[in-house]
Backbone:
């Protein structure tokens, strides 16, 4: 043989033979004779230290920035510049050393062969599938020229639109909005498809959305998980719920669907979809009638209790409550009374419940019930929905001034979104806001000027927005669509230019949660792969090119370092809240905010300073001052369809990884056996699910977990499947959302369909 | 192909897989002397569909995909190749940016090793080159070629030509220059 395998492997792996081999190599003249290519001769060949075949681990702090309650603190192990594995940080009592099935796939996600690697341009038209590589300089040149041309022709940059949402909730990622701020007044897809109706409801009631620390739940005596399934979607919260249950607390799940959380609870109550508000009103009536309400707290801390009680007395008939909710009256009474007797007791409301045409009113009704029971402002109590109380960063990346002389929209300014609450100066012009929940329609209809350029970041429009056919039309009429992402998805398919974006392991950032109270540093752990760049670097490159072409046309810094940008987000308020002197302390691990019990001091940020059963603002905006019973949308087809989150993906993220597809290979429609029988559908049959919006073909699974009259399909993007449940969803709004987030939410779960066997 | 030199063949194929734009790709492709007439843009569009993306390409040009895990780069075999390069006296300016086992990088290493022997008559690394060829390249490149050729529906003459050139290079290297015993 011309080589000996053993010999070579000993040279590579054995310190001593490797050392002498390298010495010989240095003497052989090899190094000066290599012709050079990608690989270069190593002039600093180290033959002195015997090679040990083992390079040591470096560790880095990271966070999971996905749109997930848990925002895990992560410790990343890197060897020779390559991520080896990650683990949940042990310093956080919330993450407590473990991630979820999604987080555990991060190494595979970062090194997925499917990552976008280079900036590319679609040359045969949108959707053609003909792609060419372009350099970053070329990409920025095309985009910058288009922007400047539009500005010249339209007199404004309102023809440039940005749609960005929850793909990465790191604070510096608001630099994407910052990039759009820095070029002038532009068009924004505003609002949130997620939780806006509930945000409005809580703000009307309490002047804020502010929940107790989830870790307190371990000491709750009664927990209602109302339309929320933490066993799938906030796995780290479950340990507190288990602990409480072990200590004797009752855990009740109220949900139209028998979820995994329901299977772990003390009791499961199946409720008819969209009637939760009525149940809460009925429960309040029951405890008031039984004199178990907290009159003292109500007297001191609430406004409009009298009117609310009068409403309950007059309008709420318990027999009706039972009939409409589908829950036996005795069960409702038992639930209400035992909740009222247990102290502290708490309710956790999920985000699905408010995705109805009466969603905000239902959250208000539940808030009111918790208030009546005297559990607001109490340790381990509270009406839990979410919070942004640890989000008081500087938003330095976001806050970029407009170039001098910028001209914008002269219509009224509204709220822009829920997270970055930066006070804007009152200006003569504003950006133009289009409703993110009606993206397709709004893009098509926007006039004077029409939208010509769309930038998509941290978002997969085609997986999460509604009305696919209209979306294709909307995208096709745009001059230039830029999609900045980590993976090639359905939205990228309709782009002109795709830009490969860094993962959180390839950049610095800082993360907090909308649920727990931990603060986590996100360090750059590895070099960005291929030609990927962070969103901030992309903004800087665009700024550079724009300023070359037209000095002063963009105010974004022309070069950025994600670490320096991250440091700029900290302020004394954050340091004080988390009890640290400098962000550098976070290198030792995540830290938790000093404990505060929301509203324990009886101070509410409502106009009256009290908990408002009666809200003038609600009357003004939504036509009802009180949390009243509002009937849910009337069916327009035979079956209700709900589309909750799956545990295997975060919206469209993670589901594209091949191994995730192994455990969760294809979408199903879940049908109650009774309904299936009527339609002669058997387990595994392929069915068509259809309505006035569209039609989907998929396999059926029969289960009692969904009630008769309802079908269930998980929302998410399946990599090799055009399945998207949103094709059946119209964009009908929920009742609230416009107050605090700029646009109402979507009544996703008020979708109706029919199905038949194929 | 028989008329060009062994060294040139590797070099042109290397340059094809390392091309960063249409122009570089076309120059390298034309150097292979095929009779195929194709525009720069068409060549690149086809090349990207086969090997680059952004959509899932027909055949990913990374060893790890064929040896370790069909979905992941930068895995065990990548690091094995990295160790080999280091032992051969190379440093890689693209370390941790482009996986060390990308076909273009591997062909670059192979070309440079061959160059030492052919042009400089230095044989110090010959054994390592053979090892690299037989114990690494031969483990995955044939599978890579087979996967790409299977997708005949795309029927790209230029891509088929590139793949066949690569195949014949590999066959010649392994049979006439490699293990004889
Ligand atoms: S998806 Fe949620 S639970 Fe999973 S790792 Fe990320 S933050 Fe943690």
Residues:
């Amino acid at each position: 043989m011309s080589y000996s395998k053993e010999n070579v492997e000993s040279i590579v792996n054995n310190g001593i033979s490797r050392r002498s081999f390298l010495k010989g190599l240095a003497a052989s003249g090899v190094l000066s004779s290599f012709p050079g290519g990608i690989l270069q001769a190593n002039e600093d060949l180290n033959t002195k230290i015997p090679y040990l075949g083992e390079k040591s681990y470096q560790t880095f702090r990271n966070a999971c920035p996905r749109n997930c309650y848990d925002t895990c603190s992560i410790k990343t192990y890197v060897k020779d510049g390559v991520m080896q594995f990650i683990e949940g940080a042990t310093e956080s009592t919330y993450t407590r050393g473990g991630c979820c099935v999604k987080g555990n796939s991060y190494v595979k996600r970062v090194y997925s062969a499917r990552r976008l690697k280079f900036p590319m341009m679609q040359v045969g038209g949108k959707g053609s599938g003909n792609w060419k590589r372009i350099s970053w300089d070329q990409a920025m040149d095309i985009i910058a020229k288009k922007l400047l041309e539009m500005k010249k022709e339209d007199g404004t940059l309102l023809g440039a639109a940005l749609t960005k949402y929850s793909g990465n909730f790191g604070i510096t990622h608001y630099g994407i909005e910052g990039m759009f701020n820095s070029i002038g007044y532009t068009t924004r897809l505003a609002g949130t498809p997620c939780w806006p109706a509930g945000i409005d409801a809580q703000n009307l009631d309490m002047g804020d959305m502010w929940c107790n620390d989830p870790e307190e739940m371990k000491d709750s005596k009664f927990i209602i998980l109302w339309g929320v399934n933490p066993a799938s979607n906030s796995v780290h919260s479950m340990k507190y719920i288990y602990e409480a249950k072990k200590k004797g607390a009752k855990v009740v799940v109220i949900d139209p669907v028998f979820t995994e959380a329901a299977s772990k609870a003390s009791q499961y109550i199946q409720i008819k979809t969209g009637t939760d508000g009525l149940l809460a009103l009925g429960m309040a009536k029951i405890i008031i009638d039984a004199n178990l309400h907290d009159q003292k707290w109500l007297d001191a801390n609430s406004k409009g209790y009298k009117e609310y009680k009068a409403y309950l007395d007059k309008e709420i008939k318990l027999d009706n409550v039972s009939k409409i909710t589908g829950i036996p009256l005795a069960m409702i009474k038992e639930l209400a009374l035992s909740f009222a007797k247990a102290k502290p007791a708490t309710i956790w409301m999920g985000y699905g419940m408010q995705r109805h045409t009466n969603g905000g009113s239902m959250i208000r009704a539940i808030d009111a019930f918790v208030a009546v029971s005297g559990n607001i402002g109490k340790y381990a109590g509270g009406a839990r929905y979410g919070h942004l109380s640890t989000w008081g960063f500087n938003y330095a990346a976001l806050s970029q001034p407009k170039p001098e002389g910028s001209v914008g929209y002269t219509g009224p300014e509204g709220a822009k979104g829920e997270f970055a609450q930066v006070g804007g100066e009152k200006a003569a012009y504003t950006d133009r806001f289009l409703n993110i929940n009606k993206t397709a329609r709004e893009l098509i209809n926007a006039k004077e000027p029409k939208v010509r350029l769309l930038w998509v970041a941290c978002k997969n429009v085609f997986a999460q927005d509604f009305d696919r056919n209209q979306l294709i039309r909307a995208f096709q009429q745009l001059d230039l669509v830029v999609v900045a992402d980590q993976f090639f998805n359905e939205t990228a398919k309709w782009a002109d230019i795709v830009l490969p974006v860094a993962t959180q392991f390839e950049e610095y950032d800082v993360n907090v949660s909308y649920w727990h109270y931990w603060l986590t540093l996100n360090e750059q752990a590895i070099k960005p792969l291929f030609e990927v760049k962070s969103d901030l670097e992309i903004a800087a490159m665009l700024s550079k090119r724009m300023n070359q072409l037209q000095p002063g046309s963009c105010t974004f810094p022309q070069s950025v370092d994600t670490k320096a940008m991250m440091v700029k987000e900290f302020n004394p308020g954050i340091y004080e809240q988390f009890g640290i002197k400098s962000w550098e302390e976070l290198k030792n691990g995540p830290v938790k905010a000093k404990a505060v019990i929301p509203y324990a001091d009886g101070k509410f940020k409502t106009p009256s300073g009290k908990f408002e059963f009666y809200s003038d603002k609600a009357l003004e905006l939504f036509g009802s001052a009180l949390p009243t019973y509002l009937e849910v949308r009337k069916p327009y087809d035979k079956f209700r369809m709900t589309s909750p989150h799956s545990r295997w993906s975060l919206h469209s993220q993670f589901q594209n990884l091949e191994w995730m597809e192994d455990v969760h290979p294809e979408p199903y429609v879940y049908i109650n056996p009774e309904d299936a029988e009527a339609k002669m559908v058997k387990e595994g049959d392929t069915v068509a699910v259809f309505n006035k919006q569209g039609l989907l073909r998929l396999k059926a699974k029969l289960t009692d977990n969904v009630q008769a009259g309802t079908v269930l399909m998980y929302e998410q993007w399946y990599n090799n499947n055009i399945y998207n449940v949103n094709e059946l969803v119209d964009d009908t709004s929920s009742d609230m959302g416009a107050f605090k987030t700029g646009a109402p939410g979507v009544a996703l779960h008020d979708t109706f369909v029919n199905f038949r066997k194929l | 192909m028989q008329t060009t030199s062994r060294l040139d063949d590797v070099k042109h194929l290397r340059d094809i897989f390392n091309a960063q734009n249409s122009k570089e790709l076309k120059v390298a492709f034309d150097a292979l002397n095929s009779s195929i007439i194709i525009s720069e843009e068409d060549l690149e569009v086809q090349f990207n569909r086969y090997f680059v993306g952004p959509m899932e390409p027909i055949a990913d040009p990374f060893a790890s995909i064929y040896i370790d895990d069909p979905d992941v780069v930068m895995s065990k075999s990548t690091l094995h190749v990295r160790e080999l390069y280091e032992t051969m006296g190379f440093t890689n300016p693209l370390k941790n940016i482009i996986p060390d086992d990308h076909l273009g990088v591997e062909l670059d290493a192979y070309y440079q090793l061959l160059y030492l022997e052919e042009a400089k008559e230095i044989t110090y690394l010959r054994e390592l080159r053979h090892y690299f060829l037989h114990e690494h390249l031969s483990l995955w490149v044939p599978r890579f070629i087979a996967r790409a050729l299977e997708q005949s529906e795309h029927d790209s003459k230029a891509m088929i030509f590139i793949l066949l050139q690569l195949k014949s290079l590999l066959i010649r290297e392994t049979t006439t220059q490699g293990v004889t015993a």
User: Anything to note?
Assistant: Chain A has four domains: 1-54, 120-193+395-507+522-579, 211-385+602-622, 639-757. The longest helix of chain A spans residues 136-154. Chain A touches chain B through 66 residues (CB under 8 Å).
